[in-house]
Design brief:
heterodimer; A: about 500 residues; mainly alpha; about 0% strand; globular; B: about 475 residues; two-stranded antiparallel sheet; 22 helices
Amino acid sequence: MPAYYLEALTLTLGFVLLLAEAFVPTKGKSWVGIAAAVGIFGLIGLCFLAVGPDSKPDAAWASWPLWNFYQFDTLARFYKIFALVSTGLVILLALDYRKILSRFTDHPGSENGTGEYYPLCLIACAGMMFLASAKDLAGAFVALELVTVTFYILVAFMRRNVGSLEAGVKYLILGALSTGFLVYGIAWVYGSTGTMSLQGIAEALPAVHNKTSLLFGIALVLVGLCFKIGAVPMQVWIPDVYQGAPTPTTAFLSVGSKAAGFILLIRFLDPFLASELTRAPVLTILSALCIATLLFGNLAAIPQTNFKRLLAYSSIAHAGFLLLALAAGGSETETSLGSVNAVSFYLATYLVMTLGVFFILAQVRIQRDGEAISDFDGLGKTDPLSATALTVLLAALAGVPLTAGFIGKFFAFSLAVEAGLWLPIGVAFIAAAAGFYYYLNVVRAMWWNQPNGRSDIDLPAITTVCLGSLTALALILGVWPQPVLELLK
Amino acid sequence: MLLAIVLIPLLAFVAILAGAPAKRTAMLASAANLLIAIYSTISWNQDFWNFSVPVLAKPAIHLAFGFQDGMSVVMVLLATLVTLAAVMTGDTPPGRERLWYGSSLLISAGAIGAFAATDLFFFYAFHELALIPTFLMIGMFGRGNRKTIAWTITIYLGLGSVVLLAGLVWLANLTGSFDIPTMIENAAMVDAAQQKSIAALLIVGFGSLVSLFPFHSWAAPAYASAPAPISMLHAGVLKKFGLYGLIRIALPLVPEGMHSWLNVLLVLLLGNILWVGWLAIAQKRLDYLLGTSSVMHMGYIFLAIAALVAVPGNDLAKPAAVLLMFAHGVSIALLFCLADQIENATGTLDLEEMGGLAKSAPKLAFLFGIATMASIGLPGLANFAGEVLVFLSAFRDYDPTSGLGPVQIACILSIWGVVISAVYGLRAFRRIFQGPTVKSTDTAPDASLCDRLPAILLTVTLFVIGLYPNLLLSLLR
């Protein structure tokens, strides 16, 4: 099966469900989400059957010009699976969150307005999957816009909620600004190298005369991409948008959208890191971005009192650690994993930990009607099991050993040590210590404070299963990370 | 086989979470573990103890357990012994049994895992695993200003661990391996300048975990606040991880680096023994007194480490350090266990509000007396054997014609610590058990057999090792 069927099938599923949702007169809309989730998990299986033109050069489709824009390698497969898994989990999260979604959409109280949510996730997912395969800046840009435009809707989905609308406007304005940076940067890169194909750029680099204009273009593209990955200098939108957007959208932004940004960043940087001309300055820019992101994300997270906002800063902080691995610029060797694999692994653990936390956050939002850290008070007394799960996940986010988060950070630090990035390492250590503080702050609220009349939390079935498996994964990957790394081979 | 000893408490923890009867499961698991650990003392150098599975290809990391030498055996034995005593101690808050016993088991699993791991990664990781339940338990069930105290030690030990991690990762990077024996073989790959920086990181990192002066201020409030089993496990077992790490990792891998910090280390350990000892005399509550004394006694073990740094081939210092680690672990656990019973009997731990308890609770008085003697270092009890060996090791290869070196001077000053211990130990005993009875001790019940069992277990151990230290020393040669 040619690999692009995956995107085609995801889009088809999205559009079919969108139409079905509009024309099938049912009261509840949860079936749309269930159908989307089932479809997604089917597509994950198909990812292992998909092949690119290299494995079947004789097939008719192998000579299509599409392959000038689209490639399929292990990295592409990994990020396609990543996009599908995160979309699937977000849809499951949205299913349990539809009570709140329906409160702020058309006909408040009925589920009428919630049906479009699930197909929109699928459409964004198709964009992320295409990004994983991008090999041409034009194609990548179109896919990126597909993701971003869909997110404009998803962020402002609760259209009767002022916070959600405000978040939508902020995301729209800054998103448009970053798109401007990105396109302008691509133009400069195109002007310097004469091509938009990444492979073409790699071939053209030795002949580039005007290094300054090329570096200017690269810097502009990096700034544009920082918007997607949530790094300084384009991080300002994150706290407000994360806090205002519906919780499933926030989860999707912080996991799916960030990963899509990173795979594009990896693909885009690949030719420039391979060339002597641009390697050193690009790595310097990455180090600078890494330091600024780590400092901003971690230090600004410390005084937060709203848990959802805290997760926004945490998302910036993790972008910093991911940039640390990228800035090391390590290639895969006998003993070292290489920066790309380290980033991919880190993102996989980040998916597990973050989505798990969002599952609990959503239930606390629904059942205790709040998202502040104080709304978690006494959770250890009222619901020891969900509090234990959240403790494990937060410990993983903080990077406590024997959890998945530690291994991810460990890879990033090892690569940075090998590359001798002492200043970023020093900052990252401070950042990791600050992380301990603000994640354990929530743990503290759960276990040490009294519930003070706050209600019990009943976990619905979907949340229970997802939370249980994500927590178990956060622990298993902390002791046995090799399975994820096998996917990258 | 060593995997079993780590897995048993973890599985018991899962079983308790899943609804098994908490106390019985915890006791059963700890007893089984103690039996396995005792068996390991006679068969530790056989192959069936070793266990290793690769968990990561690049860099190569294995989930590997094994006894690298007798030191690991003694530490695992200490951990299992104190765990059994700890799960038998203390009154569980009603309805919270699962958390209470589950946390003790997790701490135990973490400590055993750290002592048994032969891979640097898991050596570090298991210790961290044990810290989390410690923080949570103090924050939930602690006495006094529990939230502030628990938060302080979370931050303190968290920062210490991060510093330690930096040193360890640096070492692994230089030696190109995470397997501790392989790292030691490649020790020559760490050059002198790097040794000095790494040694500093390790001394600060391990040192704050063991409450080395001046990184000790978290310890006394934490032990005073923590529920008795947690104090027993942390002061008795988990804290020894820092010392174990210095002997296992720092000494063989960065000997020159450690040597360049020798004089600093000597000053710091005198800070532990003399300054913190002085503070112990001034304590007005038994729990603070015990916490402070536990910090003070770390100084002696640091003295043995310093002796080992000064004379690299010192064949006395390492057995001395390990023996004293064992003895201190058992005696401090015993003291915290008895302090809990004193509090249950009298409702207070304030030394000023007690007196004459020996009249109403003679058995408790007898046990506490022995524990105090042990802590002071009276002959016949395990601490004496350890402390004497430590003092002797400081004079190993000592040339009388060249005058006293820094280690010898530090040793002579440290011996004053025994006097300090006697002052506060005997004073506490007198205040609590002797003199006229007061309201709180008048009708205090004596400890029941059930309460005394863990104390008897630990007391017997102190006597056995005190009278025949060769039981452990034969493992350490």
